[in-house]
């Protein structure tokens, strides 16, 4: 959230606010709290020795999303996340420019950290959004952005 606050008893005014698009993330490996990931909804940052970089970010908010921009250098994305029993953990949807691409199943019989899920994207300027489904948990631990293989 951005807050603009007037100082003292002098005047300020707002005429126009321009929002620029987020810069695309270059090919690389990013932790969950990297600049360039735009989270919406309620997410909890969680220090955890089992997670990559010893931290992850989780949500059970049905409107919990994280979005990031990529460009034409990118051909595939790998989401590293935690999986756990169905009913506690569930799934998250992957949207490319607002269109559903696939659904990631985050369930397993044991608590498993650092689990990769890879999806391909057609190289171009895209916004990727990962969305928690329902009120079960999803988390983001690390995201790897790679050229087309
Ligand atoms: Ca991490």
Verbal overview:
There is one protein chain. By secondary structure, this protein is mostly beta strands. The chain has one domain: Galactose-binding domain-like (Jelly Rolls, Sandwich). Helix content is about 0%, strand content about 45%. It has no helices and 12 strands. The strands form 3 sheets. A 5-stranded antiparallel β-sheet has the order 2-5-10-7-8, with no helix packed on it. A 4-stranded antiparallel β-sheet has the order 1-12-6-9, with no helix packed on it. Strand 7 and strand 8 form a beta hairpin. It is globular. The chain binds calcium ion (CA). The site of calcium ion has 9 residues, from strand 4.
Major β-sheet profile: 5 strands, antiparallel
Low-confidence stretches: none
Number of strands: 12
Average pLDDT, rounded to a whole number, is 95
CATH topology: Jelly Rolls
- Classified in CATH, the superfamily is Galactose-binding domain-like
CATH secondary-structure class: Mainly Beta
- The separation of the N and C termini measures 37 Å
Count of DSSP-assigned helices: 0
Written as H for each helix and E for each strand, in order along the chain, the element string is EEEEEEEEEEEE
Morphology: globular
Strand order of the largest sheet: 2-5-10-7-8
The residue fraction in helices comes out at: under 10%
Structural class by SSE content:
mainly beta
The molecules bound to the chains, other than polymers, are: calcium ion
**Portion in strands:** 35-45%
Number of domains: 1
The second-level CATH architecture is: Sandwich
Query: Rounded to an integer, what's the Rg over CA atoms?
Result: 17 Å
């Amino acid at each position: 959230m951005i807050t603009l606050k007037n100082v003292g008893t002098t005047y300020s005014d707002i005429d126009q606010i321009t929002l620029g698009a987020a810069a695309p993330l270059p090919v690389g490996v990013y932790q969950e709290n990297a600049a360039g990931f735009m989270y919406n909804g309620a997410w909890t940052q969680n220090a955890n020795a089992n997670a990559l970089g010893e931290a992850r970010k989780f949500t059970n908010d049905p409107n919990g999303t994280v979005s990031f921009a990529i460009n034409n250098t990118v051909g595939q994305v790998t989401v590293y996340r935690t999986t756990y029993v169905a009913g506690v953990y569930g799934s998250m949807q992957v949207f490319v420019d607002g269109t559903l691409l696939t659904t990631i199943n985050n369930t397993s019989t044991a608590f498993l950290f650092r689990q990769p899920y890879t999806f391909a994207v057609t190289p171009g300027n895209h916004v990727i959004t990962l969305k928690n489904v329902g009120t079960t948990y999803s988390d983001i631990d690390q995201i790897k952005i790679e050229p087309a293989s």
